[in-house]
Amino acid sequence: MTQTRTTCPYCGVGCGVMVERNADGRIRVQGDPDHPANFGRLCSKGSALADTLGPDDRLLYPEWRDREGPAQRVSWNFALDTIANTFARLRAEHGPQAIAFYASGQMLTEDYYVANKLMKGFIGSANIDTNSRLCMASAVAGHVRAFGADLVPTAYSDLEQADLVVLSGANVAWCHPVLFQRLKAAKEQRRSLQIIVIDPRRTETCVIADQHLPLAPGSDVWLWQGLLTHLAQYGQLDFAFLERHVDGWADSIAAARAAAPNLSTVAQRCGLNEEAVLRFYRAFAGTAKVVTAFSQGVNQSSCGTDKVSAILNAHLATGRIGKLGAGPFSLTGQPNAMGGREVGGMASTLAAHLTFAPAHRQLLQTFWSAPHLVSAPGLKAVDLFDAIADGQIKAVWIMATNPVVSLPNADKVRAALRRCDLVIASDFVRHTDTVELAHLRLPALAWGEKSGTVTNSERRISRQRAFLPAPGEAKPDWWAICEVGKRLGYAEAFAFQGPHEIFREHAQLTAFENHGERPLNLAAMAALTESDYDRLQPRQWPANTATDSSERLFADGIFATTNRRARMQALTPRPPVNAVSDTYPLALNTGRVRDQWHTMTRTARATKLNAHQSEPLLHVHPGDATRYGLRAGEFTRLASRWGEALLRVQIDDSLRRGNVFVPMHWSDAFSARARIGAVINPDRDPDSGQPEFKHTPVLVQAVPMTWHGFLIQRAPLWQAPQTRYWARIPAMACTRYELADDALHGAASAPDMSIERLMQRVFAGQLPEGERMAWGDPARAAYRAAWLQQGRVEACLFIAPSAQLPDRLWLQSLFDKPALSGEERRALLSGQPPRGSVSSGAIVCACFAVGEQTLRRHIRNGCRTPAALTRACQAGGNCGSCLPALQRLIDGEPVSGVPA
Ligand code: SF4
Fold this sequence. Notes:
The chain is built from 29 helices and 34 strands. By secondary structure, it is α/β, with parallel strands linked by helices. The strands form eight sheets. Strands 5-4-16-15-14-6-7 form a seven-stranded mixed sheet, sandwiched between helices. It has a six-stranded mixed β-barrel with strand order 21-25-22-24-23-26. Strands 28-29-27-32-31-30 form a six-stranded antiparallel sheet, covered by helices on one side. Helix 3 links the parallel strand 6 (about 100-105) and strand 7 (about 130). Helix 3 packs parallel to helix 20 (about 475-485), helix 8 (about 220-235) crosses helix 12 and helix 17 crosses helix 19. The site of iron/sulfur cluster has 14 residues, from helix 1 and helix 7.
């Protein structure tokens, strides 16, 4: 058995993971008890990492595909020569701006470093942006405004040491689950720790909150400006700190007083009641140790940078920064968003937190000996893809991300890639919405195969270590980038022999001519040998010396601006660019679900992660559902000015009236028309360029379906069903397809077509051969069929005129059995478990597959705490991600609503 210490590849918590690999190849994943981010904890996604490994749908060899033809395997030499020759030609004919890279917070720091170096120093284009633009750009811009550099002052321990934690636009229970667990444990130990959640939705994070402020989307700046007014009015400003360490505070306070002069203005602008606002203000004003943790609810906005500045203003004005248990805390979404920012992997920054100021450019020019160092920022993500659409950018290299799904106005992104001369995609997955459009597909390494470093939200650098061999001809991204650099004539600059050499150069650059003015300093790591790098322990930066302590920044009141003083901002609040209207009367908010990650290319491989929320759902307030004629479990067309989606309806009273919510994860690979990026408006923050994912004006319309159904089949379909709606749900020994259609009518309306023939058309001959049992009622468009082979179920299909269909989970469990019992066989077409078996209901605990009905039965039998439920049925006893849901069930609240 081998044991490897590595890091989880999902969220910005950056949990340490211990991987055990047995001689027979079996892999076991546990939390690393010694890693300071998680101390052994993992969430549902981290716990399921071993299930995401494997050969399914891997891109194993470089492939070339002309626009119309099939993909053909090519050699790495062909691929790399094609890239280098095309880049050289485009640079000669159109200039370097015709070339772009689009990178990802999933990449390792070393991959990011060489990508940025090649583009900004040697190709001569700053058109390298990243999907971090979609999640962290406003935090970066806010930090630079206030502190002079992109610096997160706080550490995870501050969340536990604070007396008040404000969670603003951060559903940590689902998006940073291990931080949620740490916070929950801290509150259980110290009841005086207050937690206030600011979020338009009553998320599962509210389970541990003392107060929830369900503010109107986009109104955050009014709320925080009102706090500044309140602090000034009640003598709560730290004038000594302001005088010594902060510029701009008088103007900032004056602007707050002008915009948010009193509680009534704030309450009206934010859609809150005055008492609730006052309670928050008094809690902040009366508590010295306050941490405000914020995430996408703040950043993903057309005024995201101002929202960040408004939070930072409150902390600077009260001196609540740089102290134990006090400070603003940007929680990064991705595992290496922070590392990408450190190496300048965004169009608006240079490596090592250097700026485009002449002195910094000179420094970088000297260090890199760069022949074509860029002089100005490049195009940010949305603008970059607009430039591809316009034909200004003629070649783009997309690495480890899926912009056809994740960017706003995503249909335009798809059209842009279709017209681009050369699209290169580096990915470990063969079929994603983006890889499908690439001319050149480069096989990348997956988690467990690649090696390098990542930096988490608290500036802690950790190693990702390989424990599996590279499959096929998959290669590290850094290697492919360096090979292109060499072919472009820059062999010396890209002669790295391994990620340790790249990391060492990155560390050396942070220390180069750094006399203390740049806090990002890794001098202590600038001479690491390969074996030092292999043994590298998790470490926060700054890391100037081997022993310095860097847990939190600004303890001395010294900032990274030229005069070393922080800068408060004078802000004028503004609403979202596109307001709701009579035509588009609802505001669409998007975000994550508990058990999926990004566009599901990895998490959907772990079948237990597909059980909690299996389908793309539109969450709508009961009042709005009534108003627009939407019914739970049925379907709605969601449309904006930019695009539309087809989604199943979930009634959800945790939303404000007038708001709807849709998860961000579903792509065309997993559902027919649920790629929500196509609906999202392309408005963005003028400073950060971050898109407004939290507010798109939309309309909803009920879509009556003629029939509903599902197919569960052992072998996945090779071609999507021909139905208006389908969703693909990989399960343990089978794949389930949820189906609905309004166009292909049943036998009653198409008498010449039996349901059986109709189904052959829907599935295009993909239903199995073998023994078949069937039952049908043509007049009602109802049909049930099951296929068996040697007593083993191969497929079952249920069609009905309404969404009321049998329990899928019991049927799915039959596929785990080598042969059905006589009783199960008889029960199969009824869709009901044999007498004596009980349905578990929609899955709540993914680790132990415990369903809602099972939990309700235990609650009825006297389990009144999550711990009691864990004792009764294990739910919540592994990763703990479902503990908030257990509490909600105990409190009598709904947790699923998924048609199970
Ligand atoms: Fe991974 Fe979960 Fe930890 Fe995030 S909280 S790093 S997803 S285990």
